[in-house]
Amino acid sequence: EKGGFDSFMEKEIHDQPQAVADTLLGRADASGRLELDELRIDPQELKDISKIVVLACGTSAYAAHVAKYAIEHWCRIPVDVELSHEFRYRDPIVGPDTLVVTISQSGETMDTLMALRYAKEQGARTLAICNTNGSSIPRESDAVLYTHAGPEIAVASTKAFLAQITATYLLGLYLAQLRGKLFQGEIKDILADMADIPAKIQDILERKDEVISLAHAMKDTTSVLFLGRHVGFPVAMEGALKLKELAYIHAEGFAAGELKHGPIALIDEGQPVFVVVPSPRGRHSMHSKVVSNIQEVRARGARTMVIAEEGDTAVGEFAEWVFRVPETKTLLMPLLSVVPLQIFACALAGAKGLNVDQPRNLAKSVTVE
Ligand code: F6R
């Protein structure tokens, strides 16, 4: 049942190429035209919405955070991301022109279910992105887009996260298609790049030993920081969350640009810092700013562990350790850059002799508020 691995978590990390491929399967025709028939929502209604609110908790909320960058860029619709449990208690502005998207692996997270019910009372259209067929959240939503990650057994989410990002991107492309915001050829190109992602994840998995040896060498670490910018920012937060929940290590993810506004005071001799570097082929200024951030923390004594694209020669000089991810579009990078961070947390927890599938104090689905 664990497919030859020691834990479900390892198996599920290795299921990720399939999770992404299955979530993409059968959604578009040969010309790249998306047909999300299962949505059960009138395309005209989707055309008329003027804002999107994405509600989720934990790892699913980081998927939402990634989705915001893509959907706003492709569709030019404002996207707010909010933790489900915060949303409901602050008199949020939602109405019939709002599409409320919930993201939940289990479909049973009480905080998200209650937020969904609240949004419905306010007259919002609701769409669930969910991994569990027939669970409460999709059942109570107007529309549903299933992720096809397969059952996720380990408490900490991995493959569901990649499938959620994939599904939100399909939604973003579909909305862009409906609203005429992207040419069909552009959508086709992005879908083709997404179709290449599973093989690229596989390439990362084949080099997992580079990450596992680092994790073993760091097993006595008590604090790790993660930095990222743009879509790398939620990846940094997810890397930190995995490490907290699996290895019980204090970890924090920051937006790299925020460093000088406070967190840089945390850096002293030997502080480990992971940096998720955007593609040098994307927006040049963004890449060079993150490289400067590596320099800044390194100059203050940090140990710098860098996730960078193949061929990015700018990072080598300031990095103690570099893990290379294959080239892809900037917006697709989270689907690759999070994988070494998952492997790191899992291997470090393993090195500490912890139960990676069932971390202390946590439950797979949080059915209380
Ligand atoms: C983290 C993790 C949790 C869940 C969160 C939401 O590894 O598993 O943070 O992501 O509890 O759960 P779902 O997606 O089932 O609503």
TrEMBL record:
Its EC number is 2.6.1.16. It catalyses: D-fructose 6-phosphate + L-glutamine = D-glucosamine 6-phosphate + L-glutamate. The active site is at 364 (for fru-6p isomerization activity). One of its GO terms (cellular component) is cytosol. Its main location: cytoplasm. It comes from the Bacteria. GO terms for molecular function: carbohydrate derivative binding; glutamine-fructose-6-phosphate transaminase (isomerizing) activity. It is found in: Cytoplasm. Keywords: Aminotransferase, Cytoplasm, Glutamine amidotransferase, Repeat, Transferase. GO terms for biological process: amino sugar biosynthetic process; carbohydrate metabolic process; fructose 6-phosphate metabolic process; protein N-linked glycosylation; UDP-N-acetylglucosamine metabolic process. Residues 42-181, 214-359 form the SIS domain. Catalyzes the first step in hexosamine metabolism, converting fructose-6P into glucosamine-6P using glutamine as a nitrogen source. Homodimer. This is Glutamine--fructose-6-phosphate aminotransferase [isomerizing]. It comes from Galactobacter valiniphilus. The gene is glmS. The chain holds residues 255 to 623 of 623 of the full protein.
